[in-house]
Amino acid sequence: LFPTLLGLAGIDIPEYLQGKSLKPLLDDPQKIIHDYVASESVGVDGKPGTGHRMVVNDSWKYMVSDTGEEALFNLDDDLYELNNLIRVEKHKETVGELKSHLWEWKKLTGDLKVIPDKVIPDNK
Predict the structure, then answer these.
(1) In whole angstroms, what is the distance from residue 93 CA to residue 57 CA?
(2) Strand partners for 65
């Protein structure tokens, strides 16, 4: 929200600040602000670096736990995330794209939690 508040106040948003202003949505609610959104959730014991990380684009959600469990959901067809498609060969490219976004987000945020090699994109 901070970039949005700065934008509404007419203040330039510093490059180092994470996030984008949602101000353009006030003029056009259909405008696309992000190509993807990433987040992390700490585990039950609440220790930073545990739990899971996820990345979502317009149709897909990829999640990985700190133990390396992975999940892929097609949000267009499976809104309640009941059908894990992570092992479906035809979605391999989608998984790779989402892993790349997650890896970029981890670098951007300084997330030093090492996740198993199998979830790091081959080209990183």
Answers:
(1) 14
(2) 52
CA atoms within 13 A on the CB side of 116: 11
Would you give per-residue pLDDT tens digits along the chain (124 residues)? 899 999 899 999 888 887 888 888 888 998 888 889 888 887 666 666 578 899 999 999 999 988 888 999 999 999 999 999 999 999 999 999 999 999 888 888 887 665 655 544 444 4
> Which phi and psi angles does 62 have, rounded to 5°?
-115, 135
Give the integer Cα–Cα distance in Å for 71 and 63: 5
* Termini Cα distance of the chain: 30
